[in-house]
Automatic annotation (TrEMBL):
It holds the Pfam family Ank_2. This is Ankyrin repeat domain-containing protein 37. SMART domains: ANK. Residues 136-155 have a biased composition (Basic and acidic residues). ANK repeats lie at residues 30-62, 63-95. GO terms for cellular component: cytosol; male germ cell nucleus; mitochondrion; nucleoplasm.
Length: 171
């Protein structure tokens, strides 16, 4: 099997498949798949090809790093965007307890860290919004989202109007 490091030329990535490597098979002893190598090298086109052929976005190597960690360490915003669009777990921690955003920050890729933190914040807000309990009062107790309360109140008013009309017709 052909071994590649992250600084390999993009043309040599295709050699991985010429040797019969599966899309999620570790390409080397450290457990890095072709998707890891593409993300590590900032090879967005090859990574996209990997994603389209069913690569596991969350497969971790011996360091506990998934392709998203590799892209963050390489500072590849293109690869990070592809991984996020493919529903990679952005809160996945490596063996040292670091997320991809932590690594991007450690390696000095502030734009990548900001991108990942923004996506993570957006996902968190969506989850809170789905539960209907997204706001906390000053005591830390959760209370219902005011939009949900407003909708419920409007529904109650509509029902009460209908009852009044039917009561007027009966009397």
């Amino acid at each position: 099997m052909l071994m590649l490091d992250c600084s390999s030329e993009s043309g040599s990535f295709s050699n991985l498949f010429e040797t019969g490597t599966g899309v999620n098979a570790p390409a080397d002893a450290s457990g890095q798949s072709p998707a890891h190598l593409a993300a590590c090298g900032g090879e967005a086109f090859f990574l996209l090809w990997q994603l389209q052929t069913g690569a596991n976005l969350n497969q971790q190597d011996c360091l506990g790093e998934a392709p998203i960690h590799k892209a963050a360490k390489a500072g590849s915003l293109e690869c990070l965007a592809l991984l996020v669009a493919g529903d990679a777990k952005i809160d996945l921690c490596n063996n040292s307890g670091q997320t991809a955003a932590d690594l991007a920050l450690d390696y000095g890729f502030l734009e990548c860290a900001k991108f990942l933190r923004t996506i993570q914040h957006t996902q968190t807000m969506k989850l809170r919004g789905q539960s209907g309990y997204s706001l906390s009062d000053r005591h830390g107790l959760q209370r219902e989202d005011p939009t949900a309360q407003k909708q419920e109140s409007e529904t109650s008013r509509s029902i009460n109007r209908k009852r009044r009309r039917s009561d007027d017709l009966v009397s």
